[in-house]
Automatic annotation (TrEMBL):
One Pfam family hit: VacA2
InterPro entries in the cross-refs: Autotransporte_beta, Autotransporte_beta_dom_sf, Vacuolating_cytotoxin_put
Lineage top rank: taxon: Bacteria
Domain spans labelled Autotransporter: 899-1174
Species: Helicobacter pylori
Protein name (database record): Autotransporter domain-containing protein
Length: 1174
């Protein structure tokens, strides 16, 4: 087992630190050496003496059966310039991180140090001047201010070069003419007294005797050369040492500056001003030409004792003044000093590389551009932060891209070559993490890998700073990783395939200048995209913190849902996601359109704001918070485009939509396949007009909302114009502009104009075509001549909400709507078509006609049968005794042999039938009773029938009671037959309109009406007789007159709220004259049994409906007589027969059928009954 940071597993709070990277000194300071300790606290001291800036990398791989980690494990160095490590811990079983702190520190600052940043770090540190002064002072006390091996530090050929090879008089003057040095010299002369130089403890007495004599000799030579005769006399008389003592005694307390003003011509200030001036340029040039750098070095070495004494005499305080001036000149050089240094550097390079080489380099466009860029950025820091693309020409950039090194061209791209900083935790079984923190500033990776699952417990924090890092959670089994905090200042790549990731808080920035109050060194990333991208690959990803993005945010690889707390998209941001849930806020200020391929859900209490660039939603959209549209520019594209359905809800009277713009234009704020709106936990799918108009009050127009009172709207206390049933509202805003708004079933539109606009909402026909398609529209129209009008009436009646119609069209297929229109057409037909209204009487009349033909066929028997029948009749009389007053025996025989020739017939039949008229079906049940006989060779009969019928067509159900009373007769003229019939019917009808459909059920009602008919027929036929007249064929022709009268009707609504749909019809009447052609076949089997069949065809000759009568239904006025003027051609067949049961009782049956050939009308009836002859 491997235990890191503790003695045993489970132990915590050990303050253990395991570090990979430089962070120490080669040798310790001497005991009590405070100056050494102080210097090692400075950057310059660390550079010279410690391993802090070391740039080495470390690779470490730890393997064990079981691994337990606590305490701190880190990599990097204190300067952030190198030393990052690639560290892995691999466990053959489980790996536990318990209160561990994993820290991979940044290593990118090396590039900034190679330039002005390094100069400032080394020489601009506060307090460095004082520390260096102390070091120099202490070294001077040890006679080591000038290193004894100074000559060996200088290249050999450098000592032979004259000063003029690198320096001109002007450049020397620039170096010496730093005003701060002049001030410092004056400050030192003011602080030092004459006694400090000539006194007993002064500078001169501190020198060794030999050096003292050298200085005295130099003074004598100067006095002899520049002083007056008196001064020369005094010095010569008293001696230089006595003169110095005299000066000390007389002037010892004076400052050196006051003393010098007495002897320096023009005063001390004038003399100091000459330092760095060009007054002695000729002499200076001569000095530079004659003097080599070796001469100067030798002088410094020779004068080292004097320099040491001079430094120690000045002391740390005065030295710090000079050192700080020097440091300031390094970190903030003047223009003259910068120019001088640049010139000296160029000369040095020419001397090193050859004369003119520098000019050749700078004249090269590519190299010159690169060098100038580096110089302008004061080092390599700018190139690093802006990328090699900022200095390399395009052809060279293209070559790097082809080599797969294009990332180096982007800002901070060089870190791909420079940094590592990876920590890998691998377990074959389980990986446990408890209350631990992880920090990465290298752009490296933090990887958790488990053969089974990854378990995070407690509060765990992960921070990525400075660069885009990589975070991986890879496990064979499903893992739910819960983090307390996740921060990333420069974006992140998160890879957790098939695992769920949830983060409670934190902040992630993508290409953002300021993130978590950390200001980046360069602002280029704020204006131009970098390669920073936030990419997540997971099953579910929830980040409840804040994401600030000015680059790519890609959640499209999250398989299920991405849940965000706050997402702010800045101008250069691009955004992709699969399914997105917004928990707090989604603010889109990007110049690019956001793309959500799946569903978008803005939960209750959250908000979504966007500019005119908007977003696409490939699935469904649901919002329970405000939608804010901050529109800076006009646009023709839909701002929020939803492929699927959309639901937006308001709670607690909050605005659904905030519309903020001063730009005129027509804006489609949202569109979707279907948009559902709601408030107070209810969706407005139907309801009243006021329910719908209230939706407009949830739109905030530049800070103000409409108000609803009844079915009226107002804005800023001014009435709002409402048209097209509320689908378009308009008002004038406080800037005098006209604002038009439409809340439609599939979009929300707002138009702003300085002039009135003629805006109309889509018509119902447009909705049908748009939703159901052209095919659907045509199908609906074909279902009824007024289908569109009917639908509109029904939709309006449903409550007044204009959204109901398109919602209904979406929810119901074309087939269903066509069915409804056919139902209405059918119901209207039942109201307006006489052939439907009197179907029951037609069926009853056909049935009674069938019975008439059966009776007439029976009574029209002319057959004569053979003698065997007569002998049989006589034999039946054997042994019979007759009582009769007639003496003639033949009369007795004749009377009793013709018992079947009874003249009176009483019959009764049961009535049944079925009818098919257009799309309806009718039934008939009843009874028919009649009497007939021969009267002087003429058949005469009459009947009375009752029938109860029902007729069913789609949503109509009609019941009818009918009575039919008629007479019939047939006369024989040789072989001709002339038949007459007349009948009257009375009917009482009740019809019910009943639909179960949500929409059509509004017309449910019932109505009653009466019918009366007169039917008269005349028929002529000629008999062709066969087989002793037992078979008769009779062609025939006939005329029929039919009259029907119908009473008026008025519907009684099931729901009185819909009285506008009450059916109403005036009384009407109709006359029809029909011609019939037929062929009749009668077959008599004996005197008691027969069968007949009649087949015919008829045609209406005259159809007339009298009166201009109207039927009113669903806004439709139909002329009923026009519906009645339909000519028809009929085919008919009638058949039946009779058999003798016993004695005078007979059983008969008949079937009749009539078929309309021009329009559908089929009646089939049957009867079965009995006859009594007497």
């Amino acid at each position: 087992n491997l235990v890191v940071g503790a003695i045993k597993e489970g132990q915590t709070n050990t303050n253990s630190v395991v570090w990979f990277g430089g962070d120490g000194y080669k040798e310790p300071c001497a005991v009590g050496d405070n100056t050494c300790q102080m210097f090692r606290q400075t950057n310059l001291g660390q550079l010279l003496y410690s391993s802090v800036p070391y740039l080495g990398y470390i690779n470490a791989n730890f393997k064990a059966k079981n691994i337990y980690i606590t305490g701190t494990i880190g990599s990097g160095n204190a300067w952030g310039s190198g030393g990052s490590a690639n560290v892995s811990f691999e466990s053959a079983t489980n790996l536990v991180l318990n209160q561990a702190n994993i820290d991979a520190q940044g290593t990118d600052k090396i590039f900034s140090y190679l330039g002005q940043g390094g100069i400032e770090k080394l020489f601009g540190e506060k307090g460095l001047g004082n520390i260096l002064s102390n070091i120099v002072y202490e070294e001077s006390l040890n006679d080591n201010a000038i290193p004894k091996d100074l000559v060996s530090m200088i290249p050999k050929d450098f000592g032979s070069k004259t000063l003029s090879s690198l320096l001109s008089p002007t450049e020397v003057n620039n170096l010496l003419g730093v005003s701060a040095f002049k001030n410092a010299i004056m400050e030192i002369l003011n602080s030092k007294t004459v006694g400090d130089v000539f006194g007993e403890n002064g500078l001169l007495n501190a020198l060794d005797p030999i050096k003292r004599k050298e200085i005295d000799q130099m003074l004598l030579e100067q006095i002899q050369a520049h002083s007056s005769g008196f001064e020369k006399f005094i010095v010569k008389t008293l001696g230089i040492e006595n003169v110095e003592n005299f000066i000390n005694n007389w002037y010892g307390k004076q400052s050196l500056s006051s003393f010098a003003n007495n002897f320096v011509p023009g005063g001390l200030n004038q003399a100091l001003d000459k330092i760095g001036s060009s007054s002695d340029a000729k002499d200076l040039q001569s000095f530079l030409d004659k003097t080599t750098f070796g001469d100067i070095l030798n002088q410094m070495i020779n004068q080292a004792p004097l320099i040491n004494k001079l430094i120690s005499w000045l002391g740390p305080q005065d030295l710090s003044v000079l050192v700080n001036i020097a440091l300031n000149s390094i970190t903030n050089p003047s223009e003259e000093l910068t120019s001088t240094i640049s010139s000296i550097g160029e000369k040095a390079l020419n001397d090193l590389l050859g004369e003119g080489v520098v000019n050749k380099i700078m004249s090269n466009q590519v190299l010159g551009q690169m060098i100038n860029k580096i110089v302008a950025d004061k080092g390599l820091g700018g190139v690093y932060h802006q990328g090699l693309g900022s200095i390399l020409p395009k052809p060279l950039q293209d070559e790097l891209k082809q080599l797969g090194m294009g990332s180096l061209l982007k800002p901070k791209g060089l870190h791909n070559l420079w940094q590592k900083g990876n920590f890998n935790f691998v377990a074959k079984d389980y990986l446990f993490t408890n209350n631990s923190s992880f920090n990465n500033a290298t752009g490296g990776g933090l990887n958790f890998v488990a053969g089974k699952s990854i378990i995070f417990n407690g509060k765990n924090t992960i921070n990525f700073t400075q660069y885009q890092g990589r975070l991986s959670f890879v496990s064979k089994d499903f893992s739910h990783i819960s983090l307390d905090t996740l921060n990333a200042t420069n974006s992140l790549t998160l890879n957790a395939p098939r695992n769920d990731i949830s983060v409670q808080k934190g902040q992630i920035c993508v290409n953002v200048l300021n993130c978590m109050s950390e200001k980046k060194a360069h602002s280029s990333s704020a204006t131009a995209p970098t390669d920073e991208t936030l990419e997540v690959n997971a099953n579910n990803f929830a980040f409840l913190g804040t994401i600030k993005a000015n680059g790519l945010v890609d959640f499209s690889q999250v398989l299920q849902n991405t849940t965000i707390g706050t997402l702010n998209l800045e101008p250069n941001a691009t955004f992709k996601a699969n399914n997105l849930i917004v928990n707090n806020a989604f603010n889109n200020n990007s110049n690019h359109r956001a793309d959500i391929s799946g569903n978008l859900n803005v939960v209750k209490g959250a908000a979504l704001s966007t500019n005119e660039n908007g977003l696409n939603v490939g699935g469904n959209f649901k919002s329970e918070g405000p939608l804010i549209f901050n529109l800076n520019n006009p646009t023709h594209q839909t701002i929020i485009n939803v492929t699927g359905a959309s639901t937006i809800m308001s709670y607690n009277n909050q605005a659904l939509i905030h519309f903020n713009t001063q730009k005129q234009g027509a804006y489609t704020l949202m569109d979707a396949k279907r948009m559902v709106y709601g408030y107070d936990n209810q969706t407005i799918l139907g309801g009243s007009l006021s329910d719908y108009l209230k939706l407009y009050t949830f739109i905030d127009f530049n800070g103000k909302r409409m108000q609803l009172k009844g079915d009226s709207l107002s804005y800023d206390n001014q009435p709002v114009n409402i048209k097209d049933g509320g689908l378009v509202v308009s008002f004038k805003d406080n800037q005098g502009q006209m604002v038009y708004s439409s809340i439609l079933y599939d979009k929300v539109q707002v138009s702003v104009s300085d002039k009135p606009m003629d805006i109309h909402a889509p018509s119902l026909e447009y909705y049908i075509k748009y939703i159901q398609g052209s095919t659907g529209l045509n199908a609906i129209k074909s279902a009824g001549n007024n289908s569109i009008m009917w639908l509109n009436e029904l939709f309006v009646a449903k409550g007044g909400n204009p959204l109901f119609a398109p919602y209904y069209l979406q929810d119901n297929p074309t087939k269903h709507i066509v069915t409804l229109m056919k139902d209405i057409t059918s119901a209207l037909g039942m109201l307006s078509k006489p052939n439907l209204k009197n179907n029951s009487t037609d069926a009853l009349q056909l049935n009674t006609y069938t019975q008439q033909m059966s009776r007439l066929a029976k009574l029209s028997n002319f057959a004569s049968f053979d003698s065997t029948d007569f002998s049989e009749r006589l034999s039946s009389l054997k042994n019979q005794k007759f009582a009769d007053a007639i003496p003639n025996a033949m009369d007795v025989i004749l009377k009793y042999s013709q018992r079947d020739k009874l003249k009176n017939n009483l019959w009764a039949t049961g009535v049944g039938g079925v009818s098919f008229v257009e799309n309806g079906t009718g039934t008939l049940y009843g009874v028919n009773v009649g009497y007939d006989r021969f009267i002087k060779g003429v058949i005469v009969g009459g009947y009375a029938a009752y029938g109860y019928s029902g007729f069913y067509e789609r949503i109509t159900n009609s019941k009818s009671d009918n009575v039919d009373v008629g007479l019939y007769a047939r006369a024989f003229i040789k072989k001709s037959e002339l038949t007459f019939s007349v009948n009257e019917t009375l009917g009482a009808n009740k019809t019910q309109i009943s639909s179960n459909d949500t929409l059509l059920s509004m017309i449910n009602q019932s109505y009653k009406y009466s019918t009366w008919t007169t039917n008269a027929k005349v028929n002529y036929g000629y008999d062709f007789m066969f087989k002793n007249k037992s078979i008769i064929l009779k062609p025939q022709i006939g005329l029929r007159y039919y009259y029907i009268g119908m009473s008026g009707l008025e519907g009684v609504m099931n729901n009185a709220l819909y009285n506008q749909f009450k059916a109403n019809a005036d009384p009407s009447k109709k006359s029809v004259l029909t011609i019939d052609l037929a062929l009749e076949n009668r077959h008599y089997f004996n005197t008691n049994s027969y069968f007949y069949a009649i087949g015919g065809i008829g045609r209406d000759l005259l159809v007339r409906s009298m009166g201009d009568k109207l039927v009113r239904f669903i806004g439709n006025n139909t002329l009923s007589y026009r519906k009645g003027e339909l000519y028809n051609t009929f085919a008919s067949i009638t058949t039946g027969g009779e058999v003798r049961l016993f004695k005078s009782f007979y059983a008969n049956a008949g079937v009749g059928a009539r078929f309309g050939l021009d329009y559908k009308m089929i009646n089939i009836t049957g009867n079965i009954g009995m006859r009594l002859a007497f």
